[in-house]
Structures are given as C-alpha cells and as structure tokens.
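Quarterly update, task 2.4: zinc ion-bound model.
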Amino acid sequence: MIDIEKEAARIAEQGECAPRLARDPVNLPMINNWLEAIGDEHPGYTEVAPPAMVQVWTMGGLRGQRSADDPLGAMMAVLDEAGYTSVVATNSDQTYHRYLEVGEHLSVTTSLEDVTGPKRTGLGEGWFVTTRSTWWVGDEAVAEMRFRVLKYKPAQKPEPKREAPRAQAIRPSVNRDTEYFWEGTRRGELRIQRCGGCGLLRHPPGPMCPECGATKPKYLVSEGYGVVYSYVVHHHPQVPGKQTPFVVALVELDEGVRMLGELDGEPSVGLPVEVVFTKVDDELTMPSWRPRADR
Amino acid sequence: MNAAIAGIGATDFSKDSGRSELQLAAEAVRAALDDAGLEPSDVDGLVSFTMDTNAEIAVARELGVPELTFFSRVHYGGGAACATVQQAAMAVETGAAEVVVCYRAFNERSGHRFGQVQTAAAANIDNSWSYPMGLGTPAAMVAMFARRYMHEYGATSEDFGRIAVIDRKHAATNPHAWFHGRPITLEDHQSSRWIAEPLRLLDCCQESDGGVALVVTSAERARDLPNRPAHVRAAAQGSGADQFTMTSYYRDDLTGLPEMGVVARGLWERSGIGPSDVDVAVLYDHFTPFVLVQLEELGFCGRGEARDLVASGALELDGTLPLNPHGGQLGEAYLHGMNGIAEAVRQVRGTAVNQVAGVEHVLVTAGTGVPTSGLVLGRG
Ligand SMILES: [Zn+2]
C-alpha cells in the first residue's frame, strides 16, 4: 500500500523546483499564432503579450520531458502507482502582475500545494492535486497560477444513464382499488375501470360506482389512443426521476376518460398520442405518451 | 351572521423568521388579542387549518389560555383560510365558545416549502395519478388548468401577467409588503423565466415566513371593543363535483372552479348582496390564472371575459373593483390567505395603507384548485 498523503507531504516539503527556462523569449510570431487560434482580434499586442498566454512560453514542447524535481510529475507517478491512472484538469486561477514585453525571457518554478482525497466523483474515485507555479523574469515574479487536476481510477462501468434518476422516481401508492391498473401496466395494458353494474368508465378509479352504487368494479383494456386535452412544460423546480424540461400531458383517451402521463414529443392541445410503457423495475411499469406513429 | 372580527395581528413577513413556527403563532395571536383589547384568559376557542404544525393546544399553552371549549382544524390547506372564520363564527353563534382566535403561522420559506415536490405526498392514493407522472408542484398543477383556459378563451400569458402587475403595484406602497417599493411592469413579467409553462416566475406567489391571527367574537361583544368590528356578513365553504386537491382534471370542463362557484352562491345568498355591491375584492392569488377564473365564478363577468375586465382597469385602486389593495400574496406575503382577511378587516375599519374610500363590503376568497371558502365582511 502506498501512503499517498505521506508521499504528498514529502513532495510538498521539497518546495519549489529549480527554475525551468522557456524555450524562446516572448516573441511576436508566437503571439500572433496564439491570437489567431483563440480568435482574439485586439490590435494592441504588438509589443506586449496577452497575459492569458503566460503558460504558453514555458510549455515543454512536443517531446518535452518533465524535470526530475518537477513536483506535479512526481505526484502523478505516486498516484499512477496507486492505481489512480487517469487525469483530468479541473481548474486553474492565474494572477498577472504585469504585461510581458517582447524579448523578455521567462522561467517557471512549481511547488506542490495540496493533495486531497480520496473523493468520489462522477468519473470515479480520485485525488485532487493542486500545484502553484510562478513565472519569473530574472528575479521578478511576473505571474502566478494555481492549477488543479483530478487524478482518478476510472469507474469499472459507466453508470447507466437512465438508471440513477429512475431509482429515485416518485412511485405511486397502490391499494385494493388501484392494483388492477398497475398490474395492467406491468403486462403492457392500459386498463380503465368499468362498473360491473352499469358499465360506467371511470379514471381515476374508486371502489363504489358514483352512478349506480355497485361495488364490483371491472376494467376494460384501452386501445391506448387519445388526444392531448392540456399539457404543462415543467421547468422548475427539479422533480425526482425527471430531467427538466419535460412535458406532462392530460390525455383524453378515445374511450372517454382522461389520464395524466409524461409526453415524449412536441406538445399541443389536440395532438393525437398513443400510450408507451416504461418498465421501472419488476414492481412498477409507468404509462406515458408519444405522438401517434400513424398520424 | 352574529359574529365579527374584532382583532387582527401579524408577525413580520420575511424569508427567514429566525424563530420556531410555534413562536410565530403565539406572537401573532398575542398581537391580535392586543388589537382586540382582550386577554389570553378571554379566549376559549382556537381554529387553524391543515399544513400548520402548531397544534391548538400548543398555542394555548404558550399564551396561557386556561381552557378551550372549541377547537377545530379545517382541511385542504389554503382553501381553508376563510373557513376558519366560518368555524369561529358558527362556534360563537351556537354558544360553543365566546372568543375564538383563528391563526396561521409557518416558516414556509426557510423551512418546509410547499412549492417544492412533496415526495411524501405521493403516498396519498389520489396523488398516485399525478406525482409519479411528473406533475408534482402546485405551479404545474395550476398550469394544466391555465393551458386549457388559454386554449378555450384565447387568454394569453400577458392576461395572467396583468394580475401580477396590479398586485405588485399595490404592494409597492404597502410598507408591510415584502415587495414594498418594488413594482413590476408587464415586460418584467413577460421576461421572467418559465416555471411550468404557461406559468412564469412572476405568475407564482412568493414563499414567506410569518404568522397572522384573527379574533372572532359576537357582534354585541365586538361593539364594546376598541376597534370598529368587521362583521361577518356571510361565510361559505365549497367543494364541487368530482373534486380533487389541485388536480380536478376529470370533470367535463377544465376552465372553471366549480368549488368557488359553490362558495359564491353561498356568499351572495347569505349576505343578501351581489357582485355589484362589493367595494374591495381580496382574491386568493397564489397563481395568477386562477384570479381570472375566480372573477368569472364569483359573477363579476362572464366566462372567458375576465381578461377584458382586468385590462379595463377595473381592478386598480380607483377602479370599480379594487383588487388586493395590500398587494396580495404575490406582493405582500404568502400566509395562505390569512393576511388577505386581515386586509379586508382594515378596509372595513378604514385603516388600510391603500385605503379604498367608502368601503361597505369586502369580499375575501381562499385557496383555489382545492376545496375552498370565502367571506363577505362589512360595516354594521
Ligand atoms: Zn355503476
């Protein structure tokens, strides 16, 4: 086992690495290339360099090697060995003390500031490594940067995208009066309560028919077609198990009752829709709507 | 009815009260008793409504109310605001109690926010036809009605926005209002973000911390107390056919609020007045579209015509039907309608900051989209 925190303390203890001299002095051709690549059309950079370019001057080049005392390189090696093999830059803050003039020759020093972890991230478990670099012209500090990377173990399998929200989706409560409906969706049937006495169709269902008083409800299986009677496009706040914005439509089924469901498509009042079933787990299958394929 | 509101009290309205809901309730009740010139020992009845965490007995303990002979709690959240006064008035009329205090207090912004998705509410079997489908906030539930109303009557988002503009205009000159000094324009409304299309942010009322209390007693006793009584000319509750809480989507028609129609019939029959006799309307405004529908259900205009009534300027302070002179819940505070009843009392007394001249009758309504209630308060 590698003691990452101990190794980090050892590297941090070494302080700043020896100054590394830039390959070239600050020069106009490189400034012009950089401005063009970034899309900066400011005409003022003829004798001074854009401050945000500071890191460019001391980049290692295509076949550059880190110096032996480079603390970021040393820390990366420690984490690689511990199994944190992937890296992603997360953020950097730069401070510029003055403009750099054409002809000035920079050097850079770097120290390890902080290593924190292990943290669970969306990418996998990892350590945040923060370094601090200073650019010099002679013995004058002209710019500084705090730079943070995440060095992580890639998660074994990427999380299935839809699974996480579904796990927290709001579930219906089910009782004796409503069980037939959810049993239906599990079988791919959209069931509408039908009174065993007078035949009244009713949704949402209930135990006693308001027309005839019978308490023997049955059901019919809907054809699953209807039109949008009204709808909502939900933006705020977040809803468990949903990704905003999403549409909820009140659909008038061809059989005559109305029913709510999420609508996957561009909504409008009167839009012909058909039912879709989405299995959440063995217990729950949700009905929702999509525009009718045959229209 | 032989009952009157003799005292009103409130805490400050804020976004973070910094104290418990029970303390807010106790402070509001004490303020209302002070206003009525009564002591906790005079109180023998307490009424609140659901979605309030303060038990009647807890409030009685804090105030040192020795005995209660009447206590009640009305269902359906904001729809119960005016029904608390009805309960109190009936208790006073029947002799069940002499002095009944109605109260509402919550940390609805800093604590439990009704506007968020209440996952636990899905345990209710009725909600199993809406919440799991993604329809889980009051704004979204109202938006479903609003979309159909627009479709049938050609109303627009701007028609809804005019209600917000009026409320915020009135709140702007009310120092107790959260949005004091902050009026909005119709352009502000139109550029506010979508919450649940067709509702924008500025169609939705704010969330507030605070408490309000009202002291109800008999008309005779109220006459001897310091403030001019606001007589309960009529009180009514209403629930319609095939009623659900916020999701009555299965009726033939989705453009009305039949439960408010029931309340309207009750109020006009019992008070003996009609829409043209109303001097000030304090209409429940948690979401703007339902203010339009209420104007229609209450008989101030025909179906689908509310947008024309609003655009005519009738709801301005100098119009024929001044709306929410305190700024409503969109402008003053969201106290589940109880602050609107307090404003109605001030309008009857003649002590409101945005006082309407010559007020004889004030109409107050409670929460919409749910079983609801209403009041007509009047002088003498
Ligand atoms: Zn039947």
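Highlight for this quarter: Chain A touches chain B through 38 residues (CB under 8 Å).
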